[in-house]
Amino acid sequence: MKNLKIFVTNDDGIRSPGIYAAVQAVKHLGEIIIAAPSTQQTAMGRSLKGNKNAVFKTVKFEIDEQHFEAYECECSPAVVVKHSMAVLFQKEKPDLVVSGINYGENIGATITSSGTVGAALEGATYGIPSIAISKETDFVSHHKYTEQNWTGTQYFLSLFAEKMLNRKLPSDVDLLKIDVPDDATSKTPWHITRQAKTPYYSSIMKNPSLKSKLGDSKITIDLDIPTLKTNTDIYKIYVEKNVSVTPISIDLTSRANFNELYNLLNEV
User: Please, are residues 256 and 250 in contact by the beta-carbon 8 Å criterion?
Assistant: First the structure.
C-alpha cells in the first residue's frame, strides 16, 4: 500500500499555532512534510513574491514528542508551494496539500486576496487535491497569534482530508475552501456552498481626501443580511454558524453561454 504524503503550508507563518493544529489534525493520515513562509503573509493572495536569495531553512517542528520534516522560507505562500514542488517533491508529488489552519474566515468576494487560498490554488495547479481551511476569529487575530480552541476546525480538516485522500473529486473541483465557525464542534452541520459575490470585509475611512493614508482605513464587516443568498459561504458561516465547504475551480472563466455573449458583443 502506498505511503500517502501530505504537504502542509499556510500564510500565517511557520510559527503559527494554526499550522501546528493542522498537522495535529492530519498526522494520522500519512507522512507529513511542512513548509511555510518565515513571517506573517496574510492577504498576499497568489502573489509570487519573495527574497530571490532565500532558501529553505530547516525548522524544529514537534508535536507530542513527534518530530516532523519542516522548512521556512522568506517568500509568499504561493512561492513556498512552487519552491516545494521543485525542491521537496521533485521525485513524487504529495497526495494532498493542506493550507491553514488560517486565523480568520476567508469567505465572499475577497477570497482572491487570501494567502491561504492562494497557496491551495498553487498546489492545485500541479494537479494535487488541495484544501484551504480557515477558522472564524476576531480582527485582532488576523495579524496576531491569539489563543484559540482549534478542536472543531481540526475535526473538519481531518474529516475532509481523509475523504480527499480516498476519493477523486469532480473534474471542475480543484480545491475545497473550508470555513469553520469559531464555536464549531463535531456536531456542527456542514454545507456545500457557493462563494458569495458580496465582499465580506469592508474598508471604512472617515473624511477621505488625497491626504488620507492607507492606514486610515478600518476593516469591518458590513453586510445587508436580507440580500444574502442562503446557499453562500457568507450566509452559512456568518448567519447560520455552520461549516461552509466551497468547491473552487482554477478556471475563473464565466459559465455564461458563449454564443449568447458573442452575439451580445457582436451587435452593431
Answer: no
Residue 39, all three cell numbers = 513571517
Q: What pTM did the predictor assign? A: 0.95
Sign of CA pseudo-dihedral 153, 155, 156, 160? positive
Closest CA to 152 of 176, 179, 186: 186
Q: Give SS3 for 228.
A: coil
Interval 166-197: pLDDT, tens: 999 999 999 999 999 999 999 999 999 999 99
**Distance between CA atoms of residues 46 and 26, nearest Å:** 24
Pick left, alpha or beta for residue 130 (phi over 0 → left; psi -120 to 50 → alpha; otherwise beta): beta
Crossing angle of helices 77-87/115-124, nearest 10°?
30
Q: What are the Cα distances from residue 88, in Å, to 58, 81, 216, 255?
A: 12, 10, 42, 36
Distance CA 216, CA 118 (A): 26
> For the segment 122-133, what is each residue's pLDDT rounded down to a tens digit?
999 999 999 999
